[in-house]
Design goal:
This protein has 330 residues and is α/β, with parallel strands linked by helices. The protein folds into two domains: 141 residues, ATPase, nucleotide binding domain (Nucleotidyltransferase, domain 5); 165 residues, 2-Layer Sandwich (Nucleotidyltransferase, domain 5). The chain has ten helices and twelve strands. The strands form three sheets. It has a five-stranded mixed sheet with strand order 3-2-1-4-5, with helices on both faces. A five-stranded mixed sheet has the order 8-7-6-11-12, sandwiched between helices. The protein has a two-stranded antiparallel sheet with strand order 9-10. Helix 3 links the parallel strand 4 and strand 5. It is globular. The chain binds 5'-O-[(R)-(carboxyoxy)(hydroxy)phosphoryl]adenosine and zinc ion.
Length: 330
């Protein structure tokens, strides 16, 4: 069964073709460059870029999969959460295609598709229940997954998302955008405890706005002392990354202990982080907890994970949508 995945929740326009759960093609055009000068995503620019790119990406995905559009059996599209204008482009494209091709379509949750990513390409067998960790630019959440239609949030950030804070700190420190990959690259293990930053934690909920403010104050202080050079920035962001990611790791382990579930599916942009990936695998070796980490190519926003989850929901849970389905920002 061929599934077309469509992802347009933020700044990536992506279309993918999967054959059952195997990814046959996955094409993404990002409007990231257009947002760079603003240091963050501008929703209207993202929407306009999706409109320009969706058809191009769709055709490239078909070409790369070496199939015609008539071969598509199912259309799966991200319908929440995300930037509303961006979601509308993908959902309307999916609906139009569904009508034209007379093929069913299904709307999937973007965050659920992030933690479906480790199961793509039949890398692992899905065993329920499992816990999941999503760390992205808009969300930092831990879930209990009894099935893909029975998902409960156990903990989440009460303010900024982790990736968002990477981006905001890098912007304030003039290190570039997006901040995650830049800070990941700059991170120096020798400096991870140079400053002792803390993140907020209430049970399994998290807070990152305090650590963001602490980094902003450090900037002001160091600038006053004439010490805000690249070495100092490296020390500060290394200490930040260590504190933020360790808090996420610790909270995830707390959830594992509390619910006695020893499988954690992990996805989202921040899971591309080298320190975080190594740390989770190190814990896996020591404790036997399985961390099913999304392959790096599927950590950021992509349509392969959307196609994979749509295929699963349609075939295993009989979930279908009709043309009244609406995109939802949250
Ligand atoms: O999942 P994603 O592509 O989009 C959302 O759904 O938000 O995540 C994007 C976020 C950005 O904040 C970006 O800075 C962060 O993921 N990110 C990283 C890394 N690569 C991307 N954060 C830390 N380390 C990275 N290597
Ligand atoms: Zn995402």
């Amino acid at each position: 069964m061929y599934t077309l995945g469509i992802e347009t929740s933020c700044d990536e326009t992506s279309c993918a073709i999967t054959k059952n759960c195997k990814v046959v093609s996955n094409i993404t055009i990002s409007s990231l460059k257009e947002h760079k000068k603003y240091g963050g995503i501008v929703p209207e620019i993202a929407t306009r870029a999706h409109l320009q790119n969706i058809n191009i990406v769709f055709n490239l995905a078909l070409k790369s999969a070496d199939i015609t559009k008539e071969k598509i059996d199912l259309i799966s599209v991200t319908n929440s959460p995300g930037l509303i204008g961006s979601l509308v482009v993908g959902v309307n494209f999916a609906k139009a295609l569904s009508l034209a091709l007379k093929k069913p379509f299904i709307g999937v949750n973007h965050l659920h598709s992030h933690f479906f990513a480790p199961y793509l390409d039949y890398k692992r067998k899905i065993k329920f229940p499992f816990l999941s960790l999503v760390v992205s630019g808009g969300h930092t959440e831990i879930y209990l997954v009894k099935n893909f239609n029975d998902i409960k949030i156990l903990g989440k950030t009460r303010d900024d998302a982790c990736g968002e804070v990477f981006d905001k700190i890098a912007k304030a420190y003039h290190l570039g955008y997006p901040g995650g990959p830049v800070i990941d690259k700059l991170f120096n293990d020798a400096y991870k405890k140079e400053f002792s930053f803390k993140c907020g934690k209430i049970g399994l909920d998290l807070s990152f706005s305090g650590i963001k403010t602490a980094l902003m104050y450090k900037k002001i202080q160091m600038e006053k002392n004439g010490r805000f050079d690249l070495k100092m920035k490296t020390k500060l962001v290394s200490s930040f990354q260590y504190a933020a990611l360790e808090t996420i790791v610790l909270t995830t382990l707390e959830a594992v202990k509390k619910f006695k579930i020893y499988r954690v599916a992990c996805g989202g942009g921040v899971l591309a982080n080298r320190y975080l990936r190594c740390r989770l695998l190190e814990i896996e070796k020591k404790t036997g907890i399985s961390f099913l980490i999304s392959p790096k190519k599927y950590t950021g926003d992509n349509a392969a994970m959307v196609a994979g989850l749509g295929f699963y929901l349609y075939n295993n849970l009989g979930i279908k949508h009709n043309l009244k389905m609406k995109p939802e920002a949250n």
